[in-house]
Amino acid sequence: MSSGTFLETQRLYLRLFGEDDVQNLFRIEGSAEVMAYIRKPVTEPAKSLERIRQEAVYATEYEGLGLFACFEKAADTYIGLVKIKHIDDTDDIEIGYGFVPEAWGKGYATEITQKVIEYLKLNFTGRKIIAFVQEENTASKHVLEKVGMTKVDTAYEGRADAVVFELR
Questions:
Q1: CATH number of the domain where residue 26 is located
Q2: What is the pLDDT of residues 19-37, one digit of tens each?
Q3: d(CA 127, CA 92)
Q4: How many domains would you assign to the chain?
Q5: What are φ and ψ of residue 128, in 5° steps?
Q6: How far apart are CA 102 and CA 70, in angstroms?
Q7: CB-based contacts of 13: which residues, under 8 Å, 6+ apart?
Q8: Is the pTM of this model over 0.85?
Q9: How far apart are CA 163 and CA 47, in angstroms?
Q10: Where are the beta strands (DSSP E) in the chain?
Q11: Domain of residue 140, residue span
């Protein structure tokens, strides 16, 4: 496990992305399969490096929030990302995630999202926790429902209308 661990569960841990994580982030952002419900994939690792640098600035401005690399503890293997960010012009916090295909179907999204919610309830008391998901993304909708979030609205997000989930 990394010394920069931010949150951990029995099987997983999160830490902020660093510049040495370019290929890890690109495995998510550059994959048409992973990005199918999110946005158009990036075409080169340089775009992922640019995002890591932007997210590092964000994490220094907003303590306890940011873009986190997710690792499976037992093998210390990168499996995905978790986003915990404020929503502009509100006090709301958005959570999001993306995992490499070989990590799908193992309960990782539910496990880490539940931990993130526990963290936010403890450290960002009274703030709404929001997630956006494309209507067709049944797996992610199921994860959000399992962790206690409910559908409250639709909104334009990224490139299409998205279902808005909120923790009440």
A1: 3.40.630.30
A2: 999 999 999 999 888 988 8
A3: 5
A4: 1
A5: -70, 140
A6: 14
A7: 1, 2, 5, 6, 7, 70, 71, 73
A8: yes
A9: 27
A10: 5-8, 12-16, 66-72, 77-86, 93-99, 129-134, 149-157, 160-167
A11: 5-167
